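Hi W.,

Here's what went into the run:
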Amino acid sequence: MTILKVDDIGIAFGGVKAIDGVSFSVDAGQIFSIIGPNGAGKTTLFNVISGIYEANRGRVELSGENVTSFTPDALATRGLSRTFQNLQIFQRMTAVENVMVGRHLRERCNLFADLFRLPSVIRQNRNTRDAALNFLGEVGLRGSADMLAGSLSYGACKRLEIARALAAEPNVLLLDEPAAGCNSVETEEIDRLIWRVAEKGIAVVLVEHDMKLVMKISHRILVLERGRLLIEGSPREVRDNPAVLEAYLGKHGARQPARA
Amino acid sequence: MLARLSQRYGVLIALAAIIALLPLVFPSTYYYRVASLVWVSAFAAIGLNILMGKAGQVSLGHAGFFGIGAYAAAIGPAHLGLPSLAALVVGAGFSALLAYLVGRPILRLRGHYLAIATLGFGALVALVITTESHWTGGPDGMPVAKLSLFGWRAGGSGTWYWIAGGLLLGGAWIAFNLDETPTGRAFRALHDSEIAARVTGIDVNRFKLQAFVIAAVYASLAGSALAMMNGFVNPDQAGFLHSIELVTMVVLGGLGSVVGSIVGAAVLIMLPQFLTVFQEYENLLLGFIIIVSMIFMREGIVPTARRLISRGRA
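Here's what came out:
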């Protein structure tokens, strides 16, 4: 079942076409990776899908609903969640509070009830905290629940962002370089985590530079080059495609029988 | 969480104890007045700190709301025949409405632009108060009716000490309440990363507006209380200098810290009283002390002290 459908998206910055006519769709439970050289437009594509940029043309559909040009918070209410390449955690809040914010849409939020901290608010807060602790557990951060997020290691922050995104119980999860800056053990953990997420039926869209990870876990891979779709296919199809090597290594490199 | 919960009630109990016991060491009734002034200013600062320290939005025109509250307490009984308490409520309601209407467009601005827009708002309120002299008495100000409840009249500084103290406790209680609620978390989240807050589904414009309205109501109530306490209002209370004074209390005491706002208010109200012995150098010294404390306690007095204490323990 198709959850996310991206159709002929185009966006230009001052005449430079950052994304030019890209289309793809992702099914529930699928791990869909977007790869490409630096500057190919991967993060830009994420920013368009998650409503941070407004596309010049094209259409985005979530579960069949046209959500083109929706704001990020409107997209969140429709089940889209994401992480960021450059960390965007809430530094001055604890780890568990970060994840509790992720549950914002699952909470009743009434200003007057909150100002007077009515019993219903206290009860809800307890439930939200319990749920958040479970999500922290899923990414292996339960032990750091009450630490200030700003004091966590880089790898832990990456996983904290994933926990926060998961806490919203999304249909679609966009992960922007979740393994960047992580060591091999941490990458292994993220690998397993992404699998578990997909098994729940969440459509995972991944931007990642770690080719080993991408080839191992993806169901489908899309290769972007200078804002255009170069090829979309299974990991094997992508690996064996000479145009992909050329995009990464240049014409010269492609002539030699290199292994990706 | 339990530790923080008890810490919060600990602070409230300590504050109540300080308010209750302080009069025992007052050498004269004059001190009741100074302390009441601290409580009322601290109340306004706590509200502004919700906007600045929690939600991370600046307002350089907050005395505008303070002035509206003050003049509501003056104009209500004098021109409209309203009882004082009703005038206070009407003033707060009017401030909330105005904050909502003004905040909607200007809270979309960020940083310096928001600062200038709020500054403009404050200037506008002060201007209206000064020019509408048939209502407000113009630059000379106007007298304010004493607060009366069911025939009982709140008179001397002793009575006002307790009213202001109670007001402060209530204000601190609400500010603490917010911390562990969806609203409070949304404020802090959009402060740390607006973009991340938005993708988690937080309507940042709505929450910025809520923080602005809350801060406006705090300022308005403080203004009404001060007006009734003084029995007099003048346009300075809505002026730019007073706005800056409120911001200084918040920043000096510590952004995001309720106790910090009280300490900041205490320093800014009491220091000039001590410095009067230096006569014409008073303001110079006050400025110098503020500069030095901001250099050495950049996070503000209370967060710095807290950090030093926890470091000492470790």
